[in-house]
Amino acid sequence: MPAEIYLNVAISGLLTGLVYGLMALGLSVIFGVVRVVNFAHGEMMTIAMYLAVALFASFKLDPLLMLLPIAGVLFLLGYAMQNWLITPFINRPEHAQFMLLIAVAIIMVNGLLIVFGPDAQNVQTSYSFDSFAIGPLIIDATKVYAGLAAIVVAAALFAFFKFSLTGKAIRACADNYTGALVVGLDVRRLYALTFGLGAACVGAAGAILVLIIDVTPPLGPAFTLLAFIIVIVGGLGSMPGALLGGVLIGVTEALAGLLFTPSAKSMFAFAILVLVLLFRPEGIMGKRAS
Amino acid sequence: MLKVEDLDVFYGDARALDGVSLDVPEGAIVAIVGANGAGKTSLIRTIAGMHKPARGRIALRGADIAGLPSFKVCNLGIGQVAEGRLVFPTLTVSENLEMGAMLPRARALQKQNMDRVLAMFPVLAERSGQAAGTLSGGEQQMLAIGRCLMGNPELVMFDEPSLGLAPAVVQAVLQTIRDLNRDGLTCVLVEQNVAVSLKLASRAYVLENGRITLSGSGAELLADDRVRKAYLGL
Hints:
heterodimer, A: mainly alpha, ABC transporter involved in vitamin B12 uptake, BtuC, two-stranded antiparallel ribbon, B: alpha/beta, four-stranded antiparallel beta sheet, 11 helices, 10 strands, 39% helix
């Protein structure tokens, strides 16, 4: 095989990986602040994907233009979940939170099955088959837009946490929970905002990803697992780590599909997880517990 | 200003406070003295809204505030400088101070309070861009006090403000509390350094096993035989 093919596939994997990274960023933000693992993460992404599919089928609205409204809907869903469902469980043992979120995930998968049926659905935009040719490289235009959109959303989130007062207050809660209560931060509201932001991330990722892959309800659990792998590989609680982990897994899956068979791609993602756990258990960009 | 009546607090089945009553007059320094585990921090955190009392009344200027969440209590003007300082280690010094001013009562006064805090603790201005976790213990204590003052409180509860600090820094911190009180701030002081806190205080309470066993003016307690034996080693 000529070398360009490897490069083409790697770039394609990198662009898809950025979207994976955005999805995992949502999980990482929620865990980093609220200390709850969102086991319904992939399922929430499929809800966003079906929203994008429905909006496109009914009104011919491009998923990339619908990215913000869809992220907004998922924000509200996440805010409501944290405020009314998870907050009462926040001081309960972890397995109780686990069962709660697994229950939510099962309800979401089956709700989508009832509404949309089990068949794969997708979105065919006018630019579905466009591509950019740079020298010998041919890059799928859809994936370029997808990767760029993921970078823009992630950058907006980073800026929010770095510069806005509310973003700083959320970081303060993650830094020292009791300290946040002592200075009079409304921790319950900030937690709900954080869960909403994490859900908005995964909503944006879903709106983008629908351009690249077909959606079926069982995709949800698979992507919850993928988001979890990415976050562990990148480093729990590290926001740049989630993006980097997404890119790493995206490129690995793409190359594994080329060199072996596409059905073996998850095996390689797991192999990376095992290697990271063996040699750098805190994740690539995670901080070692002191 | 603040009146606590008959307060009971439990952690699970364990009783932390048993019928505690105390009175904090406006403009006073009230000291609370007691051994480790006597319930001093529980008392402060219950007043601050971080624990719900099982029974009793906490009245601020006559209005019952028991059971309100902490962000509402803070917004009524009750600040806290917590034991162990509890600064936000990855946030910068100036971001830590901003967090203190997130309360609705303090937002409009942020600039003015920031100038006041930086004038009081010039070292915080020097280190404004530095992560709070890199400060020394004494600097973190100044940051914790500054952060609390950013919330524009009328009453501040200091929980072990001198714990783990070098003697010279202890003097500076206690002097700061005296100065703040002179400027009109009402203070509740929990201090392991019993002799000093009784000298500062106009009124003092001894807390033992969750109960108030003695109260009086600072001078009275300093002269009390039981206090001298148990807490001053005389």
